[in-house]
Amino acid sequence: MFQNQRRLQKIGSSVLMSLPAEWIRTVGLKKGDILSIEINDDKSVTIFPVSERNSQGKEIAIHLFDLSHDKLINQIYGAYLLGYDIIKIGGKNQINFENREIIKKAMRNLIGLEIVDEDGLNMTIQFLLDAHSMNISKILKQMSSIVNGMHRDIINAMKNKETDIDLLVRGRDDEVNRQYFLIVRLIRTAMMDRRLASSLDLSNIDILDYRIAANHLENAGDLISKLSSQLSGFFDEIKYEKIIEANFIILEMQEKSISGFITKDTEKSSQVVTLFNKFNTISNLIKNDDIKLEGNYQFLLKMINTIYIMDEIAKCWVDIADLIKPIYSIR
Choosing a second label site near 30 at 20 to 30 A (CA), which of 1, 66, 91, 293? Predict the structure, then answer.
């Protein structure tokens, strides 16, 4: 990072400051070029040239020489998450049917990618969404809505003693992952492009907080999928209404933590902690009831695993609530 100090000069009624020559050369500026200046929330300023972005965007090439299928998928995911707009895949030989199907399968998990050019030797994939027009809080709420729906379906299945709950939530976690990858892409790009961060209305601390919150949401989706697998075919044995009650508390924790995080409502953060304490009280009662069971070790093990997964889900919402920062008014 280039850093030095500059002294302000007054010429007539204007206050001027010279720009570093090294920066001028790096960005290719010349006399008469126009600069844009943005004032940030922390009273710092961001300066960048006013020029059309490269219409082709950031571009990367992936060569298929000796690439295993796993490495090919990892490179596509990596290019997407690092903010590349164009991904060119090719090699000296024809791209075989298997590789093409692997590429298309990877693309289905990455929102905004489309094949824009294709022949026997090459495939060109492009990110067609405008990052500057996106709303990161809206994407986070979409993630939360899917996760909430998965969990709510599990609770309803428990109430109705259904046995195929795993089928109800299967595949929906993939959509959570798609939204998560899009948020990670936006955040990483915003960290490198101050203009994008400004258009998304993200400060540096917001970028960090959204990355952490999205990670907890994605983790909660995985845990809820595990919960559905754990409980599948198990409902006819469950006699504890407390388990359903505990899950409703976790649902309420999620709704308050996500809403509070997006609106920066510190009161909801406190409510999440209160709900977590209530959940702990109920889960301890369930554990105490389980200890009284004798001989049914398989049932006991399932109950212990179920409570553990529920506890991990609840902690995800506590961790998101912890990100809610107080807003102070300075008079």
Answer: 1
Number of domain units in the chain: 3
State whether 75 and 221 are in the same domain: no
Furthest C-alpha separation in the chain:
92
Please tell me what DSSP assigns to residue 121: S
The neighbouring-strand residues paired with 47 are 37
Q: Say which residue the tokens 């490179």 belong to.
A: 75
Which amino acid, one-letter code, is at 154? I
CA distances from 150 to 167, 242, 243, 325 (A): 11, 20, 16, 28
Share of residues in the chain with pLDDT > 90 (%): 48
CATH of the domain at 261: 1.20.58.220
Residue 49: strand pairing partners: 35
Q: What would the two tokens of residue 88 be?
A: 């060119």
| Predicted local confidence at residue 218, as pLDDT | 96
Who has greater pLDDT, 105 or 35?
Answer: 105
What pLDDT sits at residue 203? 84
pLDDT at 277: 96
Separation between Cα atoms, residue 229 and residue 50, nearest integer Å: 53
In this predicted structure, the answer to whether residue 106 has a pLDDT above a threshold of 80 is yes
Beta strands in the chain (DSSP E): 9-11, 14-16, 35-39, 45-49, 59-63, 86-90, 113-118, 122-127
Contact assessment for residue 280 and residue 187, using Cβ atoms and an 8 Å cutoff: no
What is the distance between the alpha carbons of residues 89 and 99, in angstroms, rounded to a whole number?
10
Q: What is the pTM of this model?
A: 0.79
